[in-house]
Amino acid sequence: MESNEKRLKTEMKIQRAFIKIVSAEGFDKLTISALIKDAKINRGTFYIHYLDKYDLKSKYEKEIILDIQNIFSNYKKPNLDKSLNKNNAFLQLFKYLYRQKELSILLLKDYDSKFVKDIKNLVLSIASNATENDDKLPKNYANELLSQGILDFLIYWLEGTPVLKPQKIYDIFIYTRTLNPEQLSNRCK
After folding, report:
1. Helix (H), strand (E) at residue 157
2. pLDDT, tens digit, for every residue of 108-135?
3. Rounded alpha-carbon distances, angstroms, from residue 112 to 22, 101, 107, 116, 118
4. pTM of the full predicted structure?
5. CB of 17 within 8 A of CB of 49?
6. What is the largest CA-CA distance in the chain?
7. Chain segment 1-60, per-residue pLDDT in tens
8. Which residues of 134-148 are buried (b: 16+ CB within 10 A; e: fewer)?
9. How many Å apart are CA 173 and CA 165, to the nearest integer?
10. Which residues contact 132 (CB under 8 A, 6 or more apart)?
11. At 33, is the secondary structure helix, strand, or coil?
């Protein structure tokens, strides 16, 4: 039986190799042979932790979903009128994604995945106030605009050079939430 420290080190080696290979070649090209070679572990060690590459990816996705759910359940939604309250769900989300940026960006860019749909639903659970349909803008369209906009914002941020610190991106995010589309488009000129 592996000690917790050894298990954690092995999982970190696997995760670094996963990120490196998937970033360079894509998930479809990922093989267990390449992963174990890059992680410098043996095949048996990999299979102690995971069934296959799909199980590995699924565990990463589930871990991120669970962590974000915990953030959203343990922290409140920011109050736009009193944005001085810095200890809220979105600031914590930005801090978490910053720490997990390489893995997060890989998984968030798989646009058609269940993972991205789950992330969008989590974002909507805290960001959306829409409760009823509007004849001009049905709730499902409003939700898609809001959740996809936030998802695109996160991806743009995480791919930035340099990646802004969580507090800075949080301040930008909160500021954008107070602008109407016309005000926002005026900033694009």
Report:
1. helix 139-158
2. 998 888 899 999 888 887 776 655 666 7
3. 17, 20, 10, 7, 11
4. 0.86
5. no
6. 61
7. 558 899 999 999 999 999 999 999 999 999 999 999 999 999 999 999 999 999 999 999
8. eeeeeeeebbeebbe
9. 12
10. 139
11. helix
